[in-house]
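Q: Convert this sequence to structure tokens.
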Amino acid sequence: MSPDRIRKLLEEVQRGAKSVDDALRSLRLAPFEELPFARVDSHRGVRCGFPEVIYCQGKTPAQVGRIAGSILEHSETLLATRADREHFDAVRELAADAQFHEDARCITVERPPCERAGRVVVVSAGTADMPVAEEARVTADVMGARVETIYDAGVAGIHRLLHDTDRIMDANSIVVVAGMEGALASVVGGLADVPVVAVPTSFGYGASFGGLAPLLTMLNSCAAGVSVVNIDNGFGAGYIAALINRRLERS
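A:
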């Protein structure tokens, strides 16, 4: 349940359209809905400012559809990550306005789309890193951030990154996505006076050990403003960057 839904409920009680007992019943049922395979947290939007997000990998399309339906009963916004076309088809059966972001492997619903504010910049090292970068972009976008992207700006051709120094310096928060050795996060951290959320990716030759090498590089960064999320976790990075952006815009 979102703050707007709670406000509408209270307004209905105030004007006599709903009884106090009915309102209490709605609020009692709101914390979560128990499905045969999931407990859907419908109060997360009130507590955390954004509703529960569906991680689709490992779930059947039918399960994703049921969970999405439960979330949309209490919220105007939906985000599902690591989705494929079959997951999207299941969601679209109950939400014709759902959108599938194929590169990001994400599904979104916004009713209506919120106004974007602030500035989150997503930087990726190489084209192979783009799916993870796109997951970060879509996440920050649906959470209300104005998002800009700088793709294929790895340190092997550092002039490509330095060309966009002004955009990096004007951001409220930055997501840096890189595989191979993961050095890009430290370079960006040395250019910016805002938090940098680094995402190591699993793309690289054998000695990158499926993302472990860039993870360790980022954790050992000498740039003080860099924090790190898990390997390939574009969603987590986009979420953190959007929260930082939101707080700055509110202040």
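The two ends are 25 Å apart (CA to CA).
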